[in-house]
Each structure stands twice: as C-alpha cells, then as structure tokens.
Specification:
Number of helices: 5
CATH architecture of the largest domain: 6 Propeller
Largest sheet: 4 strands, antiparallel
CATH superfamily of the largest domain: TolB, C-terminal domain
Structural class: alpha+beta
Radius of gyration: 22 Å
Strand content: 25-35%
Mean pLDDT: 89
Length: 387
C-alpha cells in the first residue's frame, strides 16, 4: 500500500503552528457529521476490503462502495479528525489513521469504526521514552565523569563532552514531551500498514512510529529501533511479498527492516527532499516524492537509480495494478504510467488539474483516483495512448 499524504501535508503546518487551538478543539473526538455529496469531499487514501472499496478523508470521512465505485455511502466514524490512510489485511478487519494521533479499527469491512488509539496515548509513550533515554544518558555521563577524574587523556575528555551534549538534548526532548502531554493530541499519523490481521504499523509526523502484534489492542512505540535523531516525518510504509518492510519520509529518509519492523536499517541517501510514497513489486522498490523525484531499486533496496520523469510535479501516491502497470500521481492532475515496475514513465495531465493523493485498480480494469476534489475515474485508454 502506498502513502498518499497531500491533505495531511497541507494541514501539517497548521497543526504545528496552531497546536494549542487544534488540540483543545472538541470536534476532533466527536463523531463525523453526515455529508451530502461524499464523492466530492477531499479524500486522502483508498483501499480494498475484499470486494469492497473504502476511502478516507477530511473531517473523519469514510466512504464505502460495494459496486467498484459506482455508488458510495458514508460510514459511521467516532472522530472528526482528518484521516490520512487506511489498510485492510482481510475483507472485514481494517485500520485507518489520521490527525491527533488517531487510529481507528473496523470489524465489518469499513461500515463502522471504533477509536483504538489516540494522541494522548502517543504523548504518554513518547514521554516515557524520553525519560528513559535521559536516565540512560545520565548514568553514562556519571560513569564517564568518574573515569575522567582518574584520567586526563584528551580522548576521555572529548567523549565526556559529547555525552554531556547528548544528555542536554535528551533533557530538552523530555521537556518537549512533557509539554506535548499538557497541550494535548496534535501530531498526525500519515500511514498505516497491516501485514497480517494481528501485526501492523502506524507512522507519522515528528518520527512517530508504532507497532501492534495483537490487532491493535495495544500499540507500542518503536523510537529506540530506528535512527531519526531530528524527528523527521515518516510518510510511507510498504512490504514485499517475502516480508521485507520499507519506510520513507522527510529529508530523504529511507529504511528497510528484515526482522518484521523491530529494527530499521537506514538505506543510502538518495536526495535531501521528501519521499512521500513507496511501491514494491517482486524485487523492485520505487520511492517517489517532492518535485517529481523518482528512485528505483531492482535488488530490494541495495542499489538505487534515479528514474527519468518528464515533469517536476510532486508525486503523492501510486499503485501497481493487477496488469503489472505502475501508476503514480500527484499535483496539478499529473498521472504517470509505466508498463511495468522496471519500465519508463510517460506523463498524462488529467483534465480536472486537481491534485491526487491515492489510486487503486478496479475489478473491471478501471483506475480510481482520490484527491482534493474527491473521486475521479481515470481513463486507462488515454494513459496507455490507445486510439
């Protein structure tokens, strides 16, 4: 599944700069209101729950279709926070994530949802982590100071200075975490991926990364299992057929996990811009993002190369279709198509010029995209250049 984060990205600045106002807004954790025309509302992601399609978007909107997108109805949702991503490992069981640290769960194929986790719990776990890190570093600094008293070498003094600076950073991080708990839930989750009915991941702003092994009954932070000192945002998760996990984010972050997500290895730095999405197919991994940058690996992430893109529009979502074709899309109505995961991309500008955030293949070979203006059926004949 691919992350499609346009609305979340557009509103992330608001969330950061207006945190106290947003966090105290009661509407975040009140039920989503009914909307008259759900197909024109801003949508961020779309997934398949068996034969059913499920799309999520602004103000807690979840819509479902049982006829391949011909008609849609709104689901009952207990929050009004913007939802950013949705994942269904089985036809009935699914999860959606969004702003204010929201994680929702459905047992009926997306027809109804329950709040499973929220930003209050996120803030508590982050505070616990920062406190533990500060205590660990304090112990190491104390031990180094005792040994430094018995040693006058430059090496020991330099190491002590480095550890003291790390301790200062840990103290500041704990203070920030304590303040976040007082302010309330703010930061959004930006992607969710369930690799089985029990095991899943949710990632988001400021380095949020959480894992569950019991279908969301409990979520646990993985801050210690990944290197991200600056707390850059995570945007996208993907899994290969043989179980390798990939994670991309801000400032060119790109990771791979070979142990089911317990630890993450930083991959080579491809460029300094954001990587909003990931796709996998066989040994291929495709990462894409800001200003149309696309990178591809054909050996499961060991060696990467830049992929030619005739445009510079930012790319927010994509999908590998049942035919093997790859579709990427993004700002200004841009749609890119490749015949295969290793093929060259050709560009197509949708007449609406809207900005797309996600795409999925339909049962009849059609392609359904979602974005700022809601749902849009893409003409694959135009994409392929058929007469």
């Amino acid at each position: 599944m691919v992350a499609r984060r346009l609305i979340a990205l557009c509103t992330l600045c608001f969330v950061v700069t207006a945190a106290p106002v947003y966090a105290t807004a009661d509407f975040v954790f009140t039920p989503a209101i009914p909307f008259a025309d759900v197909t024109t509302m801003p949508l961020t992601d779309i997934s398949r729950a068996g034969e059913r399609l499920v799309a999520v978007g602004e103000r807690g909107l979840v819509i479902v279709s049982d006829d391949d997108g011909q008609s849609w109805r709104q689901a009952a949702v207990p929050v009004s926070a913007t939802l950013t991503a949705v994942s269904f490992p089985t036809p009935n069981k699914g999860w959606a994530v969004g702003h204010a640290g929201t994680i929702l769960h459905s047992d009926d194929g997306g027809g109804s949802w329950q709040l499973q986790f929220d930003g209050v719990a996120v803030n508590k776990q982050y505070l616990e982590f920062t406190r533990s890190e500060r205590e660990r570093l304090q112990g190491e600094v104390d031990a180094l100071q005792r040994s430094a008293d018995a040693s006058t070498t430059d090496a020991s003094s330099s190491l002590l200075r480095e550890m003291e600076l790390s301790l200062e950073d840990a103290v500041y991080a704990e203070e920030d975490a304590r303040q976040a708990l007082e302010i309330g839930p703010v930061d959004p989750f930006l992607d969710v991926l369930f690799v089985s009915v029990d095991r899943g991941f949710a990632v988001g702003a400021y380095g949020m990364i959480y894992r569950t092994e019991d279908a969301g009954t409990s979520w646990r932070a993985l801050y210690g299992g990944i290197e991200n000192i600056d707390r850059y945002h995570y945007y996208s998760l993907a899994q290969t057929e043989d179980g390798l996990l990939y994670l991309s984010g801000e400032a060119g972050l790109l990771y791979r996990s070979t142990d089911g997500g317990l630890s993450w290895q930083r991959l080579e730095s491809l460029y300094e811009g954001s990587l909003f999405g990931l796709l996998t197919k066989d040994d291929y991994v495709i990462a894409f993002g800001l200003r149309g940058n696309i990178f591809r690996s054909d050996d499961r992430g060991y060696i990467w190369s830049r992929v030619d893109n005739p445009t510079e529009n930012s790319l927010y979502g994509g999908s590998v279709l049942a035919s093997g074709e790859v579709v990427l899309l993004g700002s200004g109505g841009l749609v890119l198509r490749a015949q295969s995961a290793g093929g060259a991309f050709s560009a197509f500008d949708d007449a609406t010029r809207t900005t797309f955030s996600a795409v999925i293949g339909g049962g009849g070979g059609e392609v359904l995209a979602v974005g700022m203006n809601g749902l849009r059926l893409l003409d694959m004949k135009e994409l392929r250049g058929d007469d």
